Every structure is written in C-alpha cells, then in structure tokens.
Amino acid sequence: MVRLRGGAAAAAVVLFVVGAGVSGCKKETTGSAGPQGTAAGGAALTAVDSLTVKGRAPKTGYSRARFGTAWADTDSNKCDTRDDILKRDLKNVKFTGGTCKVVSGALEPDPYSGKEVTYRRGRSLVDIDHLVALSDAWQKGAKYWDASKRIALANDPLNLLSVDASTNRSKGDGDTATWLPPNKGYRCTYVAAQVAVKKKYGLWVTGGEKAAMKKVLSECPGQKLPSGGNPTQAPKRFSAN
User: Fold this and answer.
1) What is the pTM for the complete model shown?
2) What proportion of the chain, given as a percentage, has pLDDT over 90?
C-alpha cells in the first residue's frame, strides 16, 4: 500500500511563516512537515523573553527510562509514536500489515542537512529527533516533574522530527547555544520549535541559550511560534522508571 505524505496528519501540520526578504531564513525548503501543531502562537522571537533563565542543573539521575517506554502510543491511535512521525514527515510512504508500520519513504530533503535521505525500516538512516533533547529537558526542569509529564514530552509531536541520522547524532543533547542544523535555511524553524516546546512545558533556558535563540530569530522576526501537539500529561496507563 502506498500513502503519500499528508493524509489525516495534514490537518495538523505546522505552517511556518518566514518574513520576506530576511537573510539566513528567507527560504524554507525542508521537505518535512515539521512539528505538529498550528503557527498561531505569535512571534517566536517575542516568546523567547517569556522563558525563565536559570543555570543548567546537574544531569544526576537522568536516564531515558525516566521518560517512559520509547515511542509509547500516548494519543491512543493504535500506532506507536515513531511511526506516527514517520507517516507525518516522509514522502511516498509504504506500510506493512495495515497503515501503522512504515517500511519505507523519503525525506526530500532532510531538514537538518538539506540532502535527500531514503528510509528503509531496519536501516539507521533516519532518526526521530527530540528537538528539545530529553537530557537537556531533565537538566532544565523535567527532573522535578511527575512521570506523566515526562512521558508526554517524549512523545509530543511538537517536539519530534524525522531527520537524517548521521547529522542528528552530531547534536547529542545540545541546546541552541551548542548545536544548530547545518542547513542554515532551517535554523529559524528549528529554534522556533525549541522555544515552543520549552514554553509549553515550562522548561527553562540558560543565559547562553537564550542569547543564541534571539540571535537566530532576530534574522527572521516574522517567524511564528508553533503550537498544538499532545496534552502535557500522558494517560494514566503509562508509567516510567
């Protein structure tokens, strides 16, 4: 079965608006639907000032398990989160055994590198990136949350994006101050999404991170803040260690 990119997910695709004539972020030719939601949150640059500024807390106690089982079906659509994001972001999607398990597709192009990447299930050429890395979130507020909120963050489409695996793995748990996509045309969209996630979940930023966010977004002051995604509490049936 072949399903073109979009489908039911298209109704929730983020539309990122970039100010005409702004250098660095003038063109947004990413080939990816991007974080799920609506661009109704006002200017991303303005939203940066609403974020609390604190120092990075110790990483002590962090593990992926504190955010629940990977790719939990928190939206209860009978498909795991990873496949939901692949369906949303890839073109020319093919499935096996129904309309959940994605077996192939393409990033045309990948938002982080700008190159075309073919996805085949079982090959590590495409990652689902947490735009705000879970370790970064842990050090900026998430260690104090209950498990339900951490699980929600880990599976929120607003915080997830299909990307080239090799490029993504250079990011690690970096924030805006330490890592940006090599594809300069995507940086405004990327930073706006990080601001949106941190604002939605009440995560703080470091002083350096805030300055880096403002530097990127000052080049595209018309960049809208994405909104939407899933609720900030996962259903009670989910748990984390």
Assistant:
1) 0.84
2) 81
